[in-house]
Amino acid sequence: MSSTLRLDTLRMPVTAPGPDSPWPLLRGTDIHATVSGHDMDIDYGKVANLLPYHAQNGYAREPVIADLPVAVLENERLTATFLLTYGGRLWSLVDRRTGIELLHSPPVLQVANLALRNAWFAGGVEWNLGTTGHWALTCSPLHAGRVDGDGCPVLRMWEFERMRRMVVQLDAWLPPGSPVLFVRPRLHNPHDETVPVYWWSNVAVPETETTRVIAPAASAWHFGYEATLSKVAIPGPTDGYPARGRRSADYFYDIPENSAPWVAAVDHAGRGLVQASTPRLRGRKQFFWGRGRGGNRWQEWLGGQPYAEIQAGLARTQLEHLPLPAGQTWSWTEAYGPVAIDPVAAHGPWDQAVAAVDDAVISLDTLEKADAAAAGWSELAPVERLFAGSGWGALEVRSGGLPAAPGTPFAEDTLDEKQQPWLRLLDGQLPVSDPPAATVVGPQWTELLEKQHDWHSLLQLGLVRYAAGDLDGARHAWRESAAAAPNPWSLRNLALLAENADAAALLYTEAHDLLPGDWRLSNETLGALLAAGRAAHALALVDRLDSMQRGHGRIRLQECRAAIKTGALDRAGEILRGGLEISDLKEGEDSLGTLWTEFQAAAGTDEPLPARYDFRMHPEV
Length: 621
What we know:
Layout: E1 4-14, E2 64-74, E3 78-83, E4 89-95, E5 100-101, E6 112-115, E7 118-120, E8 125-129, E9 143-148, E10 153-161, E11 166-173, E12 181-188, E13 195-197, E14 199-206, E15 212-214, E16 219-223, E17 229-233, E18 249-253, E19 262-266, E20 271-277, E21 283-288, H1 293-301, E22 307-313, E23 322-324, E24 329-331, E25 334-340, H2 343-346, H3 350-360, H4 364-377, E26 384-387, H5 392-399, H6 420-426, H7 443-449, H8 455-467, H9 471-484, H10 488-496, H11 501-514, H12 519-531, H13 535-544, H14 547-550, H15 553-565, H16 569-578, H17 591-603
Antiparallel strand pairs: 1-2, 2-3, 3-4, 4-5, 6-7, 8-14, 9-10, 9-26, 10-11, 11-12, 12-24, 12-25, 13-23, 14-22, 15-19, 16-17, 16-18, 18-21, 19-20, 20-25, 21-22
């Protein structure tokens, strides 16, 4: 059988991310924001905001059957399936000789709030570019095309990553007879300045009581969601078995520079998946949710099947970014495939397990030959377009912010309604629209927007300035926007820059009076009122909301908080005991547990935290 590439459809239950929020992300979402116990420069590369992106938080918990477009690579040994509308994720990798699925590939695509833009789902191999966290395009389509490789078809996927303003390119291929799938990411910095780069390939693998994660390391950096990073010996207390961990934890393996980087997960029989790469992708990691109540709840929340993650990154840890110099390109080749080692060795002493995998893993020489071959076609134009991603790359090329490249073409016909207002600005005038146009960033837009004077252009000018770190300039533009025409969009942004909680609450209230029907703005306004000590006003605002908003989990959470603070304990108890579900509960968020504790203290009772509210990733007390 020769190597083949085809398009197909995967039918499965899905909770889709829904339409983008109309509110730009003016705050970062890094759960590793404050970490002690290390000597790393974790401030380098951090982002204060996620502009130009907007949140993907318009989803519910109930899945519906959907047909997902996929690209499938296949040879005699493996079948690899990629989700084209979900970040190009490698969703399935099947060993054709045994019929075994090597990845955690759950039967439902269950979206939850774990990514930079909120929506994320467990399973497969996720590619992460940008900054610490699951990347902004994890629930967005990528462009895809076919490239003629060295004796086999190559699936090329690419997209313009708008925060770092770089093009990410992924070439995947399965040579005839190859026991591994090759994937070659390529990152090019087209700018005149150095760009902080973050990359992690995130591999979800099935977790059983006997699953063991193995990497060629004798120590690791441990992060246990307690804001502390510590160097520990490996194999450590879990001995590489994620099921033995009670609490959620990251282990960033300290792999020696003279060792070929790889990481594997094997079952009771010594069979499983191994991921290896050329040396540039140096970092390796294990993550597990833990078998405590909080970890079990998260596993249930994300689809119900236990899984662990083995990851590979450019830096030592996910707290770090590396400088990619101006005009330079970084690339490397990764390999994914089955591994089978003696089960006695697999579950014996750590050094013995490492040696067994090291003998079985693809050689560095083979990886480097594959990488060299891929370098020969990496800049060739696709011979066939398979799928269209967003129009943002085409807009960036049109505006002069990105040079055109034949290997990653952004076709003019991908420009859609999101880019149309900005095409109009290139022709001389940004149209006024309510809700506003989707956000853009980049120096080429600043000069154009500074020539406009309507409220919408001033709003957008403030966002471009804010993204560039010019907070005073952003504040000035938003004040001018609100003065030109009172609008909730500028008032909300000004509230986020307010000097104190009272000023923020006042600005949010003004914004909400102009747009009372948006649950996201209602949620932020209620939070601002509570932060300013105005719980009674918050409760009164809840009472004025329509029934759809009042039924949203976030609004009910704020209502319960306000009820506790005002002494309306019957009202709070009815919400809590009736079942409070927040569809976009954030990773690391303990709002439900905290709310339960606050209610118990106010009511003078001591009922234990119900399992359905226990999402704690930190030590359970």
